[in-house]
Amino acid sequence: MDNSSGVGVIDKAAMVLDALESRPASLAQLVTATGLARPTVHRLAVALVHHRLVNRDIQGRFVLGARLVELASAAGEDRLTAAAGPVLLQLRDATGESAQIFRRQGDSRICVASAERPVGLRDTIPVGTQLSMRGGSAAQVLLAWEDHDRLLEGLTNARFTPTVLAGVRRRGWAQSLGEREPGVASVSAPVRGPSGRVIAALSISGPIERLTRQPGRLHSDVVCNSARILTESLRKSGE
Amino acid sequence: MDNSSGVGVIDKAAMVLDALESRPASLAQLVTATGLARPTVHRLAVALVHHRLVNRDIQGRFVLGARLVELASAAGEDRLTAAAGPVLLQLRDATGESAQIFRRQGDSRICVASAERPVGLRDTIPVGTQLSMRGGSAAQVLLAWEDHDRLLEGLTNARFTPTVLAGVRRRGWAQSLGEREPGVASVSAPVRGPSGRVIAALSISGPIERLTRQPGRLHSDVVCNSARILTESLRKSGE
DNA sequence: TATTGCCGTCTCAGATACTGAGATGCAAGT
DNA sequence: ACTTGCATCTCAGTATCTGAGACGGCAATA
Questions:
Q1: B167 and B55 within one domain
Q2: For chain B, first and last CA: distance in Å?
Q3: In chain A, which residues have their Cβ closer than 8 Å to the Cβ of B20?
Q4: Do A48 and A122 fall into the same domain?
C-alpha cells in the first residue's frame, strides 16, 4: 500500500498518531514503532502536543489528545448534516411542511439541520436554534430512548409523562400540539446511530390548521420512513 | 498566543483542521480562512485526505474525516484507563479481590483495565478479555442503564430479568454468583461519563467462598464509592 | 560508590522537502 | 464567444526539516 501522501511531515505525524492509537507510548516506544530518528519523533510529537492532538501523561508518555475528541465531534456532526440534507428536502416536499433535525444537549435540543417550506404559512427554526426539552415532539423522541435514570430526570420539568413516552416507543413516533408554541403542531421520529442508539430526532412542523389535531395520523408514515432512510445512510457511511 | 510549534507543516495542517471544525469548506474558503497560499493549502489538504483525517464531500468540499473519530475513540479509552489505574489499585487493596473495568461492545463486554489480587485464590481477567453479556454483575450494570429498547434487546439471551435490572438501578449496584463461571462471585457499579450516561462498569470478582453468597452486602459500599470517584475524576479531566 | 546504559532533549550543518508564483484546464456566468 | 473564478499541477529556489552527535539525568548494576 502506498503510504506517501506527498507531504512527508504529515506522513510522519500520521505514523505517530497511528502508533498512539493502541496505547500511550514513551518516546523510545514511538521511535521503535515508527522507525523514525529519535529527534525527529521528538520534534513531531512535541509539535502535536502544542496543537493538543497529543498530550503527555504524568509519566511523560505521549497519549492521544483532547483536540481529537473535539474534531471528531465536529466530524460526527458533519456526517449527520451531510446525510440529512437530501432526506430533509425530500420530507419537506413530501409533506409540504418545514423539516428539521434536533440533537439533545443537556436540558436543551439544538436544530442542526433544516429544510423550510418556501412559501405561505410555515414554521421557521433556523439552524443553531436552541429549544427547551420541556415540550415538543422532538423532545419526546429524544427523551423516550434515554436510559431509565436520564429519562426520569428529563421528565422533571417536562409537560409529558412516562406513559406518553411509552407510547412514543411503541408507535416509533411522537406528535405535539402547541407544546413549544401556540398554533404549531409537529411530528418526530428517532434517528439512530450505527450502534442502534438514538442520536437525533427528525421532525416536521407547521400550523395546526394544516397539520390538524392528529398530525401523526397524517404524516407519521413518511416521517418514520425518512428517519429510517437517514439511519441507514449513517450506518452505511460509517464504515 | 504563540501559535508556532516549531514544525511549520504541522502548524499549517492544524490551521486547516481548525478551519474545518466549524463547517465543510471549499479550497477557496480554506485559503481565505488560513491565509496560506492556494497550492500549499491544496497540497496539505490532499495529504490529510490521504490519511483520512480529512475527506471530500460530494461537492468536492473538504470535511473532517473518519480517522478523527477512530482516534478520538482511542483517546477516550486512554482517559478512562488512565483515570481507572489508581482507583482499581485502591479497590483491590481495600477489598482484597481482583478489580476490573468493563465496557459494552455489542453483545460482549470487554475488560479495558484490571488490578489483580497478587496471591492466593483469585479471579484473573486479562485486559482485552471479551466476555458475554448473558451473565455477570458487570453485564447487569451495562444493561440496566441502556435505553428501553436496547435494554429489552439485551435481555433476549440474558440470564436475568427486567425486575433484576430494576433492582440494580434502585440499589446502584449488581451482584452475581456463578453466572460467568461456577464458583466465582462479583459486584459491579456504574461508571458515568460527563453527560451522566453509563460508559463502563467497575467490578470486583473472586471465589464465592470468600465473597459469600451476598457479595453485595460485603462490598457494595466500597465498589460504589470507587465508581463515584472514577466518575468524578473523568468529569474533572474532561473539562 | 562508581560505572554503565538508556532515555529525553537540544544543537546545527547539510540536504531536500516544501513553498508559492505562475501555468493550465474546466465550469459557470455574462 | 469571452471572461471570471476555481482547482490542480509544475518546478526553481530556499527555508524548513532532518538526524548525527552531544549533553544531562536517572536507574540499574557491579
A1: no
A2: 21
A3: 74
A4: no
Number of domains in chain B: 2
Q: Which among A21, A41, A64 is the end of a domain?
A: A64
pLDDT averaged per 10 residues in sequence order, chain B, 239 residues: 82 96 94 94 96 93 94 92 91 94 92 88 88 94 93 90 95 92 93 91 94 93 97 81
pLDDT of residue B1: 41
Q: What is the structure's pLDDT at B238?
A: 64
Cβ separation A73–B70 shorter than 8 A: no
Sign of CA dihedral A158, A163, A165, A171: negative
What CATH number does the domain containing A95 carry? 3.30.450.40
Q: To the nearest whole angstrom, how far is the Cα of B198 from the nearest Cα of chain A? A: 9
Q: Would you give the DSSP letter of residue A70? A: H
All three cell numbers of A137? 415532539
- Check pLDDT > 60 for residue A53: yes
Contact criterion met (CB below 8 Å) for A77 and A113: no
Q: Based on the fold, state whether residues A93 and A199 are members of the same structural domain.
A: yes
| CA atom of A43 to C1′ atom of D19, Å | 11
C-alpha cell of B47? Answer: 495529504
Q: Give me the count of residues in chain B.
A: 239
C-alpha cell at A119: 412559501
ipTM above 0.85, yes or no: yes
Distance, in Å, from the CA atom of A222 to the CA atom of B105, rounded to the nearest integer, reads 32
**Which residues 114-153 of A are in CB contact (within 8 Å) with B?**
144-151, 153
Nearest Cα residue in chain A from B142: A147
Q: Are B53 and B153 contained in the same domain?
A: no
pLDDT band at A36 (very low <50, low <70, confident <90, very high): very high
**B186 φ, ψ to 5°?**
-155, 160
**CB-CB neighbors (< 8 A) of B75 in chain A:** 63-66, 68-69
Residues of the domain holding B187: 74-237
Residue in B with minimal Cα distance to A151: B147
- Which of A120 and A206 is assigned the larger pLDDT? A206
Q: Of the candidates A64, A94, A110, which is a domain's last residue?
A: A64
CB contact under 8 A, A14 and B148: no
Q: What is the pLDDT of residue A196?
A: 86
Tell me whether residue A220 is in a domain.
yes
> Which nucleotide C1' is nearest B36 CA?
C20
- Mean pLDDT in residue range A202-218: 93
